[in-house]
Amino acid sequence: MKRLAGGGKTPAAKLNHQGIFAVSISQQPTGNIEEEKLVNQEEPFQTDRVLTVSAGHAVHDTFAGFLPPMLPELIQTLSLTNTQAGLLAVFLQAPSLIQPWIGRIAGRINLRNVVFLAPAVTAILMSLLGVTPSYYLMILLLVGAGVSSAFFHSVAPVIAGKLSGNRLGRGMSFFMVAGEVGRVLGPLVVVTMITYLGLRKMPWLIILGLLASTVLYIRLKDVPDIPADSGGEDHWMEALRHMIPVLAPMLGIVVVRGFSMAVLSTYLPVFLTEEGAGLWLAGAALSVYELSGVVGAFLGGSLSDRLGRRRVLLFSLSATPVFMLLFLYLLVHQITVVPVLLILGFLILSVNPVLMAIVQERFVENRAFANGVFLAMNFLVRSGVVMFVGILADRVGLRSTFLISTLVVFLGVPFVFLIPKGSPSN
């Protein structure tokens, strides 16, 4: 990598787990943002290798998406409460809080091998859930899988960015959509395995993870090291103080949106089975929701570029409760809810790229760190909300919890107006 004019160091290319490219500028920036865009312009887009990383992302997230559709079976097999079941999702997600630190370590130590190993490690740990007799041992497996996932999502996007050359946007689109595809396939794979072979046969799926890691190693073992980042401790503390006016209202949006995500992303299979649906249908419904989220995650940011960040956020937060109420109405009357789930997936999952875009616009000189802080906040809030929703479901039932969560989402609208404007498009 070249050094920039003026003696500044090459910015560290880092990306978050959603596949958004982020550039972290050193403690002594060059002051010329345009120069940063020229760094990779001479390098070609390596289509086959970007697809390899993206395919590894899809396989990894397929296994990471096993837990929600497994919850009905685990609740029955281990006699779990909804609160205990929700806590399992918390333990899987909690290690994502260390992503900002992993990103900083990756700028100093080459963590490329972590990307090669992560699909296999996550596959082993998630597949063993089917044969684990103890709730506490299951927690250990999920924490381990969460750590593996945190490392993968902190480093793999950086590698994809390096291989994208002067087509970073295209490369990140491949990577982001691959992850969403994995989350769509995960429920289908695991419920098919459980339905036809049973929980005890799940370890056979480990073979897929081992194959994915092998292919990643063979295809990417000569990928160059990730460039270093030299920001100091004082630099990051000062940056964090400047982020508070923007992150505070965004925190409000993340909290209220977390309720809709909890009942749909985590408890939808449990809710549908309680309403009389079969396990396969409940898992398929989750895949329908996640499938529309692929489109939402891909188009949400682009729509906000054209229509404005606030308009997209306001529309999503206003329309989501309406369609959640429609979902409950159709379910009561045993009418197909597939079209509504498609709309809900698009609305709910289109918000995250918009929030990411706001973070990137507001903190140009600290994009990687800002993204890490936002993602950590996002995961922390989501884990807490999932646990709270589980406790609430044990007390008042999932249907009432779904209704309460629907009403909570409306409270997010005022927070949109509290986000400082970062550009005319907002």
TL;DR of this structure?
With 426 residues, this protein is an all-alpha fold. It contains 18 helices and 2 strands. Residues 1-41 and 227-233 have low confidence and may be disordered.
What features would you describe in this structure?
By secondary structure, the protein is mainly α. It has one domain (5-418): MFS general substrate transporter like domains (Growth Hormone, Chain: A, Up-down Bundle), CATH 1.20.1250. Helix content is 73%, strand content 2%. It contains 18 helices and 2 strands. It has a two-stranded antiparallel ribbon. Helix 2 runs antiparallel to helix 7, helix 3 (67-78) crosses helix 11 and helix 12 packs parallel to helix 15. The chain is globular. The protein starts with 11 loop residues before the first strand and ends in an 8-residue tail after the last helix.
